[in-house]
Amino acid sequence: MEELDDDSYQNRETFARYGLAMYHAQCVEKSLAILVSCVFNKEFLQSTHDRREEIQGEEFSKTMGRLLNRLKKQITIPPNLGKTLSDSLKKRNWLAHDYFLERGIQMMTPKGKKKMIEELTNLSDYFSKLDAHLTKIYENAMKKLGISETEIDEGVKRLIQNAKENI
């Protein structure tokens, strides 16, 4: 592998960390889709397999903001989690739409890129922890409904595969 100079290395790390932060933000979005489509949707468990697939497909195509609004209509979200979810939506939207516009000048200096790498690492950790929390919520809810961990894992794999096929 070719050795990178410091500037190229920092550029690579900045974009890699950005990608990782967006990946974890998308994981939060997909966990919200699972909560909205499967866990807190009364129609889901009473539906046929085909209808469940249709429900999941509909929710998986929605934006994080629309999923959060739908979740608020389905359940009363505890205040701390509600604030975290609202904050995560703002952070995700800022990351997706404005991050590089606002950080353009910082991209020009090694010190600026170092700050960006740290900031993006923190955002990635933030979204990763939130996703783990949401995953725990839907796993616990599904277990209460009598759905085994194996069925949950297989269902999540199917959801991911269906999402990939619809890209």
Overview of this protein structure:
- The protein has 167 residues and is mostly helical.
- It has one domain (6-165).
- Helices cover 82% and strands 0% of the residues.
- The protein contains 8 helices and no strands.
- The protein is elongated, with a radius of gyration of 19 Å.
- 23% of the residues are buried.
Can you give me a brief rundown of this structure?
This protein has 167 residues and is mainly α. The chain has eight helices and no strands.
- How much helix, percentage-wise, in residues? over 70%
Question: Spans of 5+ residues with little confidence (pLDDT < 50)?
Answer: none
What spatial form do the alpha-carbon principal axes imply?
Answer: elongated
* Main sheet record: none
**How many individual helices?**
8
What portion of the residues fall into strands of 2 or more residues?
A: under 5%
What structural category characterises the helix and strand content?
Answer: mainly alpha
The helix-strand sequence is HHHHHHHH
Average the pLDDT over all residues and give the rounded result: 90
**Can you tell me the number of structural domains?**
1
Radius of gyration: 19 Å
Determine the N-to-C terminus distance: 32 Å
State the total count of DSSP E strands: 0
